[in-house]
Design a protein that fits this description.
By secondary structure, the protein is α+β, with helices and mostly antiparallel strands. About 60% of the residues lie in helices and about 10% in strands.
């Protein structure tokens, strides 16, 4: 029987080698929770056994229960009837299975009914769900709403809503985007009006809201009269009610099982979450970090599905009296797909692990004045801030390439709806757009690259003794670090913000390749069986890194005026 966890050697490898001991010990409060909850582990090994059992169960559900429904869900899509949104029948069945299995609250603490898992394991789960049906991930992946309520809401709100999420009795939505405020969330205009009794009402319109029909949502709204920037925005919790009207759902290219809604707020009752004025600058930024990693995992899952379909087809399809997988052009496409998927998975899981570690270090800081702890927390935070946008940028662009190549390997058959790869390409395309376009991820990553935070992380990964058979790859990794560092130095020496912005996509693409080179090299150092994929990726990546470095260094003569002429 198929299982997206046990059948995937790369996910298995990550599960066995992820450095989670410090994270798990903190989550389990030194394993004292075992004295209060029957399902709490008494040791790290005990925790790992529990994690494996849950991920194996989810892998089986994804492969055997959800994946067979994906084509039907894509054809039927979500419905909008009589002012109400209805999921496709297959989506309803899939959600029921996940609820019955108790898989709707991966990271919530046990006292609210959650599994109390590290976020990186939830990222693994998100990838597997996405491999089965990318549109379902947009419902399963909104567990981040409950996580945000846990992080920032007061205890009464937690007690009221988190058990509902844990039991799967409600779904969530993050309601941010507006017709005139897409990526520019500082321009949000939805109005929050405080009532004489201290309650709040919301007025205005939101658009492109994933699962906007949710029972419980977090809404970004302008609470400060006369404000025009992010400091006037607060976060509110709302329930589905008559005052919250779904105007329509969008007719989309892909992810048809996930309804994307336009919403009208006609005095919707709302509850303030956390403090006023921190809605964007603290709460949504935290929420968006989780969303970036979730979409990166979604992209990896789609790419994995596309690769599996392409490989199976290439093994069976015979042309010129032999399977097409034996043709070098096809074989190299598959090898490149595999190596880039593993690179994206490595970046995504590492970004997710660092998010877990940052959260734990920040909580420790609240009760400690240890300067060493403060330094470490700051360091991990800087790495997390640069790796999360890089994960989303790299994984989403990779998924589009992988799905494109999967169609190409299928030839004309891949263009037909009888084969899954055309759906996978349509589903992949959105990952470069929502939760921040690739261009916005470039902006998000740029500061951490220019500041040296990424270089510090790469140096810690790369400056070590490698086994003799890895000497050539280690030299290439060093060259990659040097090319990136020289590009950063060059841009900083020019002190031309316009030119730096112009080169930012090339710089971030180079940085993503450099990061993947180091992560895959590290894997090969830990496990000789990983050498071949590391060699393939690094050999393919180095010409790209050299080209980007040369381009950054040699094009400052393209002035703003000349750039305008190019378009």
């Amino acid at each position: 029987m198929e299982n997206y966890f046990t059948d995937n050697p790369d996910i298995q490898w990550h599960f066995e080698h992820l450095d989670l001991e410090e994270i798990v010990e903190a989550l389990e409060e030194g394993y004292t929770q075992a004295g209060h909850y029957d399902d709490a582990p008494a040791s790290y090994e005990d925790a790992r056994e529990g994690y494996r059992a849950v991920l194996e169960m989810l892998g089986a559900i994804a492969a055997q229960e959800i994946a067979p429904l994906a084509a039907e869900v894509d054809r039927e899509g979500a419905h909008f009837e009589d002012g109400k949104v209805r999921y496709a029948a297959g989506t309803e069945r899939a959600l029921k299975v996940l609820r019955q299995a108790g898989l709707m609250a991966f990271t919530l603490p046990r006292r609210y009914g959650g599994l109390n898992f590290p976020g990186v394991l939830y990222t693994m789960a998100t990838e597997m769900i996405s491999q089965a049906d990318a549109s379902l991930m947009n419902l399963f992946g909104l567990q981040d709403i409950a996580e945000t309520i846990y992080e920032f809401a007061d205890e009464p709100l937690k007690e009221k809503y988190l058990p509902l999420f844990a039991r799967g009795e409600v779904t969530g939505a993050m309601i941010l985007t507006e017709p005139e405020a897409g990526s520019d969330l500082q321009s949000v205009r939805l109005k929050a009006v405080e009532q004489p009794d201290g309650t709040w009402r919301l007025y205005g319109v939101k658009r492109f809201i994933t699962n906007g029909c949710a029972e419980v949502s977090l809404v970004l709204a302008r609470s400060e009269e006369g404000s025009v920037d992010g400091r006037g925005l607060s976060m509110f919790l709302v329930e589905r009610c008559p005052e919250l009207v779904v105007r329509r759902i969008e007719n989309k290219l892909g992810i048809h099982g996930s309804p994307t809604c336009e919403l009208q707020f006609n005095g919707v009752p709302a509850v303030l979450v956390g403090q006023r004025r921190l809605g964007l600058i603290r709460y949504v930024m935290s929420l968006m970090n989780g969303a970036r990693v979730a979409v990166a995992a979604q992209a990896v899952g789609i790419a994995q599905a596309a690769y599996e379909e392409a490989r199976k087809y290439a093994e069976k399809r015979v042309q010129f009296r032999k399977p097409i997988i034996e043709f070098p052009q096809v074989y190299d496409m598959l090898a490149r797909m595999k190596s880039e998927i593993q690179a994206a998975r490595a970046i995504t899981y590492e970004a997710s692990r660092l998010m877990d570690l940052r959260r734990i270090l920040e909580r420790r800081q609240e009760s400690s004045r240890d300067p060493a702890l403060r330094t470490r927390a700051k360091e991990v935070s800087s790495w997390t801030s640069v790796l999360t946008p890089m994960a989303k940028a790299y994984a989403s662009e990779m998924a589009v390439r992988a799905a494109y190549d999967a169609i190409q390997i299928h030839g004309g058959a891949g263009y037909m709806r009888e084969f899954p790869v055309e759906r996978l390409w349509r589903d992949a395309r959105i990952t470069t757009i929502y939760e921040g376009t690739t261009q916005l991820q470039v902006i998000g990553a740029l500061g951490g690259i220019l500041s040296g935070a990424l270089s510090q992380y790469l140096s810690l990964k790369g400056e070590r003794d490698y086994r003799p058979e890895l000497a050539r790859l280690a030299l290439l990794a060093r060259e990659a670090r040097e090319k990136l560092a020289s590009s950063v130095t060059h841009l900083k020496a020019l002190n031309d913000r316009d030119y730096t912005d112009y080169m930012s996509r090339r710089l971030v693409d180079m940085a993503c390749d450099c990061l993947a080179v180091h992560l895959l090299l590290d894997q090969a150092q830990r496990d000789p069986a990983r050498l071949l994929v590391a060699e393939k990726f690094i050999t393919d990546a180095m010409p790209r890194i050299r080209m980007q470095a040369e381009y950054v260094a040699g094009n400052e003569r393209i002035t703003i005026e000349k750039r305008a002429e190019l378009i």
